[in-house]
Amino acid sequence: MSNRYIGQPMKRLEDGKLIQGQGQYLADLTTQNLLHVVLVRSPYAHARLGQIDPSEALQIPGVVAIYTSKDLPHIFAPASGARDSKVAPHPVLARDTVRYVGEPVAAIVATSLAAAEDAALQIYVDYDPLPAHPVPLQALYADPLHPELQTNIALQRTTRSGDSAEAFQKAHKVVRAQLLQQRVAPAPMEPRGILASWDGIREVLTVWSSTQMPHDLRSAVAEKLGLAENQVRVITPDVGGAFGAKINVYPEEILVAYLAKNLGKSVRWVEGRGESFSATIHGRAQVAELEMAFDADGKILGLRGRVVADLGAYALETTLGNVPGTILMLQGPYEIPTVELEMLGVYTNATPTGAYRGAGRPEATYYLERLMDMGARELGLDPAEIRRRNFIQGPFPYKTRTGAKYDSGAYAEVLQKLLEVSRYQVLRAEQAQARSQGRLVGIGLCSYVEITGYGWDTGGVRINPDGSAVIFTGTSPHGQGTQNAFVQIVAERLGLSPDRISVVQGDTLAIPYGMGTAGSRTLSVGGSAVLKAADEVRAKVQRIAAHLLEAAPEDIDLLEQGWGVRGTDQSVSLEQVIATAFNPRKLPPGLEPGLEGHASFALKDANYPFGAHLAMVEVDPETGQISILRYIAVDDCGLVVNPLLFEGQQHGGIAQGIGQALYEGMRYDAEGQNLTASLLEYALPRADQIPWMEPHRHQTPSPTNPLGVKGVGEAGAIAATPAVVNAVLDALGLAHLDMPLTPEKVWKQISL
Fold this sequence. Notes:
Layout: H1 15-19, E1 35-41, E2 47-53, E3 63-67, E4 97-98, E5 104-110, H2 113-122, E6 124-129, H3 136-139, E7 153-161, H4 164-169, E8 173-184, E9 193-199, E10 204-209, H5 214-225, E11 232-235, H6 251-263, E12 266-270, H7 273-279, E13 283-294, E14 300-312, H8 322-328, E15 339-347, H9 361-379, H10 383-388, E16 398-399, E17 405-406, H11 411-422, H12 424-436, E18 440-449, E19 456-463, E20 469-473, H13 482-494, E21 501-505, H14 522-549, E22 556-559, E23 562-565, E24 571-572, H15 574-581, E25 595-602, E26 610-619, E27 626-636, H16 643-662, E28 693-698, H17 715-732, H18 743-751
Parallel strand pairs: 1-12, 10-11, 14-15, 20-21, 27-28
Antiparallel strand pairs: 1-5, 2-4, 2-6, 3-5, 7-15, 8-13, 9-10, 9-12, 13-14, 16-17, 18-26, 19-20, 19-25, 22-23, 23-24, 26-27
Helix pairs in contact: 5-6, 8-9, 9-17, 11-12, 13-14, 14-15, 16-17
């Protein structure tokens, strides 16, 4: 594949309208006679639900209806889980019992948002509080939140490979730690929202939603409302970030769709920021008790322990997937001869958890990279050296002890590149000099491997008579800039100018089937489908050009001067090919008019990006404040279609990883009250707290797809957290300290 467009840093196509304020987000949409929904949410983490009296609220002008669970069919949000898991689906509105602060109890429908908000304050709800268990290690032994399940353990599995007992018995050193992955909020710039409109004449429900999965939402709405899928159309307008949180189909989406159909009206709900902190899934939320055995040379002998995941009160579609993903990736880039790992998923009186940028991989990488640094400390080895001694060398594909099948890897090479571009030995010398002056300077490393890509997707390419082209894709955007990548692929294969190509996505009427965007799958799966569709069009272009030039199609190629016979100066322009394609009388026999291709691509095996990151920090001993002096990343995601998009994903992921390491964390009190339910309490990092980043790339093509690409959207969020934590602990000379490493927490350690 040439590099006329692929591999070039093309600016993002969608940014112009967004910068000019011309984007159309869910809250910008409106229809005639639009009704607004406000939800009454539980102030208790656990309580029996008694009488709900809406009589005073119904007197407020503009209130159309008030719904409780008694007014609805017995419907739940979709939930996913393996056969050995105990699934507690989320009711659309609470029935009998509430199980977390923020669970929806009643829905007010009004002609204005103000009227609905006023009515919400006038609804009387009788709660009988029950004991709350927001901490997973406590909930393990508490009375079941869902009595019908008879336990709070939703998932329990053990992964074993090799003789763990023998490995630990003969170990030279064993490091042990309880490692916390605190709850964090995805906090997209645009919270969730949905607008649904019922057309009673055509009996069609149109749904606009800020979802990552329009086709999944279509299927869920159709199933829950008893409609055929062709009676539901889902459209995603501009989506202001998602980070995995908008994969799930939430109770509010099913509820609003039901209300629109039941009332025969257009109904909209837009999540407030406070609601987002209590009702949208949280990420991470695990505690691991792990130990790693080393021999005298620093080689890993074994890994064992357990990971307990806080599921929150109910299972949504992504809730039960994080902890298996953590176990799957707990070998990382290292040779680990023996593993014995238990995983537990536990229901608690807290907001449900789910997929958040990385979804299991950040947790696994954090655990491994903390243990590797602890091992280096115990053995007196440089952190880079202990990693180098333990890297998987291949051959690839490589089957891990935890069940992953790595497609390709060059783990030692990316670490070496990181050490070279960062001038690692110079940094260590600068650190030593700073320490001699009494400054607390630390350097942290992270080597990681993650899993991306799954499933199948669809793609289509159509060249119009005027020479413009349209790409259709079953993936769905929420800020990644993937339109560019698709355009560059099609421009490369067909010789079109990128500014003549548009992309249609996020509309289930225009694209009948698709799997949306999640797991960094867009380019490897969706891009491969688009490539196949483009190649269908290319084959037709070659046939038409061959017909015009009286040559064989296999001799036709895309040349500088147009479509011509390879090795000659004979060619025709794409415009000539298009003119012929839309004139049936000029086409060769057996060829239908038009230039259009449709394809699907199924990923048989996942792909496994990898990389190495370095953070250099300084800690102020007077305040505990942490300054990141340098941040350097080397990521390998196979072929890079657009370096600007690649670096943008690096930047965004690293910023979120730094946020978890230093600032962010959801906190609950003993009664299950969320103490961080606003931006006043939840400390998202500011722009001035994110350092200048030094992004680099390494390219090891993946054999899993025709583009040779792997995902990069989650890499920074996976690698930055342990790199920064390792750097801070190196500065402090500590073996471990749980995140977030806030100034108060760090200052207390310095003051001991």
